């Protein structure tokens, strides 16, 4: 039996891929391809690598931290049928590689000792796009997990840069690890799930079940469990507010109050007319602003210039800056 271990990275349509595999696990199991139930949480195999993260913010509090509990469960499941291929998937494998590469390699050796051969699937994404996706994720969750300090001191600009730098370093470490890695970029096709699943199809190419497995992949859809319900201008107001607060004296403001929920409440209660004028802002505007903004010589005109450079009109730039200041003033009051 061979094994494919999908290690992430985060923000590469991993949720879609994991949902697809879990949703089709019964069909795949009958064809000799196992997507194990062992150490699965929320469709991914996070509980085993999660043993090395006792306080992981997105894993269950009540869980075993003994790797052998999950390893023994896994061995029983492998022995329960005639499987030729096994697929594991969790970004927590990547988190472990970042935290402690030697511990990751020990765990990898333990897992792969059960198989004749193995490969790692590393899914990637353009660095700036991935960093921006990470910022949006943190803005959505920071009020739910204040103890995690997802955006330290609400410094979004430097958090964006740090995510990008960490990700670039992490990717370089994988590429020089000498491990048997298959690398797939999220942007390679319009359907990342299908693209990633093609690695599984390739294993079965000379097998009689190949056409059936291929059809499963062709029928894949990009399910997005964590579909973003917030429009881009919401994120941009929070980004601008964080810059303004950082560069001015707003001692009365509790940074923990700056959240998507508080911003939505402010907009709803204020009946701001010019919100409709900025509702057409796109994510590429936000990304361009984050990539290029320089905090040297802070001023509203400097922010406005960078917004125009990112592609906003003079009117939209002025409107969204004014709304950001009004939001801050409401929090201060």
List the helices and strands and how they pair.
Elements: E1 2-8, H1 14-23, H2 25-30, E2 33-34, H3 67-78, E3 85-89, H4 92-99, H5 101-112, E4 117-124, H6 127-141, H7 156-175, E5 181-185, H8 192-203, H9 210-218, H10 232-246, H11 260-270, H12 275-278, H13 283-292, H14 300-310, H15 314-332
Parallel strand pairs: 1-3, 1-4, 2-3, 4-5
What percent of residues adopt helix (DSSP H or I)? 40-55%
State the total count of DSSP E strands.
5
Q: Order of strands side by side in the largest beta sheet? A: 2-3-1-4-5
Class of secondary structure makeup: alpha/beta
- Helix and strand element order: EHHEHEHHEHHEHHHHHHHH
Task: Quote the distance from N terminus to C terminus.
Answer: 64 Å
Number of discrete domains: 2
Poorly predicted segments: none
**Percentage of β-strand residues:** 5-15%
Shape: elongated
* Main pleated sheet: 5 strands, parallel
The CATH class designation of the largest domain is: Alpha Beta
Spatial extent as radius of gyration: 23 Å
**What is the level-2 CATH architecture name of the largest domain?**
3-Layer(aba) Sandwich
Mean pLDDT: 92
Task: Write a structural description.
The protein is an alpha/beta fold. It has helices spanning 14-23, 25-30, 67-78, 92-99, 101-112, 127-141, 156-175, 192-203, 210-218, 232-246, 260-270, 275-278, 283-292, 300-310, 314-332; strands at residues 2-8, 33-34, 85-89, 117-124, 181-185. It has two domains: 2-218, Rossmann fold (3-Layer(aba) Sandwich); 232-332, no CATH class. It is built from 15 helices and five strands. Strand 2, helix 3 and strand 3 form a beta-alpha-beta unit. The longest helix is centred in the middle third of the chain and has 20 residues, at 156-175. The model has no long low-confidence stretch (mean pLDDT 92).
């Amino acid at each position: 039996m061979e094994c494919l271990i999908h290690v992430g990275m985060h923000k590469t349509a991993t949720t879609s891929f994991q949902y697809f595999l879990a949703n089709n696990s019964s069909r795949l199991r009958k064809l000799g391809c196992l997507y194990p139930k062992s150490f699965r949480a929320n469709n991914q195999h996070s509980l085993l690598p999660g043993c090395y993260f006792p306080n992981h913010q997105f894993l269950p509090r009540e869980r075993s931290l003994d790797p052998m509990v999950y390893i023994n469960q896994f061995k029983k499941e492998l022995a329960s049928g005639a499987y030729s291929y096994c697929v594991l998937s969790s970004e927590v494998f990547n988190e472990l590689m970042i935290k402690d590469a030697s511990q990751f390699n020990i765990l990898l050796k333990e897992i792969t000792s059960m198989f004749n051969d193995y490969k790692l699937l590393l899914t990637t994404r353009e660095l700036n796009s991935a960093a921006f996706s990470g910022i949006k994720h943190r803005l959505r969750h920071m009020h739910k997990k204040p103890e995690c300090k997802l955006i330290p001191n609400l410094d979004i600009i430097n958090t964006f840069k740090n995510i990008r730098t960490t990700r670039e370093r992490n990717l370089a470490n994988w590429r020089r690890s000498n491990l048997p890695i298959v690398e797939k970029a999220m942007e390679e096709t319009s359907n990342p799930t299908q693209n990633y699943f093609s690695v599984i199809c390739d294993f079965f190419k000379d097998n009689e079940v190949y056409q059936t497995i291929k059809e499963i992949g062709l029928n894949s859809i990009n399910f997005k469990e964590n579909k973003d319900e917030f429009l881009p201008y919401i994120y941009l107001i929070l980004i601008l507010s964080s810059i303004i607060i950082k560069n001015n004296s707003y001692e009365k403001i509790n940074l923990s109050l700056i959240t998507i929920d508080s911003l939505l409440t402010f907009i709803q209660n204020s009946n701001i007319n010019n919100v409709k004028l900025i509702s057409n802002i796109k994510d590429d505007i936000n990304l361009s602003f984050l990539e290029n903004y320089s905090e040297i010589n802070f001023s509203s005109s400097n922010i406005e210039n960078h917004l125009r450079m990112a592609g906003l009109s003079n009117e939209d730039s002025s409107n969204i800056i004014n709304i950001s200041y009004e939001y801050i003033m409401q929090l201060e009051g």
